[in-house]
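Do me a favour: review this protein, sequence plus structure tokens, and tell me how the chain folds. Record follows.
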Amino acid sequence: MGADNQSKGLCVGAPPPRKRVLILGGGFAGMYAALHLERQLGKRDDVEVTLVSRDNFFLFTPMLHEVAASDLNATAIVISLRKLMPRLTFVEGDVSGLDLESKRVTVAHGGLDGHSHTLEYDYMVMAMGSETNFFGKPGPRDYSLTMKTLGDAMLLRNCLVDRLEEADADCITMGTRNAIVTFVVVGGGFAGVEAAGAINDFIHGALPFYPNIQHANVRVMLVHGGKEVLPELGEDLGAYARQKLIEHGVEVRTGIHVKDVTEAGVELPDGTVVPTKTVVWTAGVTPPSLLCTLPCEMERGRLKVNARMEVPGFPGVWALGDCASVPDVTNGGKPCPPTAQHALRQGVTVAGNVSAALKGQPGKAFRYKMLGQLATIGQRSGVARILGLKFSGTFAWVLWRTVYLFKLPKLETKVRVAMGWTLDLFFRKDVVQLIGPRELDQLTLPALPLNSRQQVRQVQALHPRTQH
């Protein structure tokens, strides 16, 4: 009896198990959810918050095209997640399995061994972002570059420099040279328009270093399936952006859906082929394929959630950002657009809802009315719609830089970007090729993470002389 009483006393005195909160994804939605949960729960001993991300840094994606155009160094738009949230547990890896019934997540990482870990949770936030949508076509996947990751922007920049080096060689004939310095961007949304403007600025800005290439040899083309580019901003601003791109030297073709992308170039619906070795695919995104395996209701491939971003049927599970269809209560319940400004505010709301759930209280509905959208179109000009007011030209470009500079996390990131922009005003484009053909040949693909292997294969497909 005494032993039993002693045993019961030990049980009574033991601390309760820690509640485990798991956040999948280190983009805008996941990072801001983790950041605010750290502020609310970081000092508590009864809660453990773990962030899982394939990269150990947060990437400020709106500035990716500036890295590709050599306006900014790659390190200027990233910040370490461990440095940003020191009180959280961080796991780098790819989510390879989700079991909502048993509340387990499988995370794979590592190089040659490729081992995995199983993480259990009490509460989970899914902010897994999106992937480039190739619409089931192998050609665009194998012969195009994308603009989703930091690696994408760096590879595109290196690819642009390599094309200039190749075209400047004396042994290249004029006809072949023109094909080498033809650059095609597929997709006329924000990513496509900003990429086309950045590529055009970089190539023409670098030509003084390549005497054998004339401006007339260069061809930058933007192909968009819609009626007007930048449809999110309305036809008037879209038409302005298209006209400005044309004035800058970009060939814009609207109302055209690319039929295929091959080693020879871009095939259009009428059968013509645009000879090129460089295609940037920004025609759309799709949620991660892993989500299709979940026993959840989907809406256009995205997880359907309620106004509090809760996944129906699975208490303690939230989904937000690009991977979720979050109803916009300010717009009749239509799905929120997959923008960074929505994602970061969804992350803040979810953090509050997780904290409320830990207290046994109901969460709040996500409510946000979009303030506006901005885009740069090259040559220090842009377009913007803010609170219903429309802006264009240099003022919109300055407004874009001002708004996004203040949205950058941490003072050190703001300082790095401001310094990079200042240097860019006074100096010419940097044409250093950070990853050359020899280095690409030396890369051992199995030793790289899956996403890096895919990026290297994309460059090898676009760069035949580097194939093994």
User: Anything to note?
Assistant: The radius of gyration is 24 Å. The chain has a mean pLDDT of 88. Residues 95 and 325 are 20 Å apart (CA to CA).
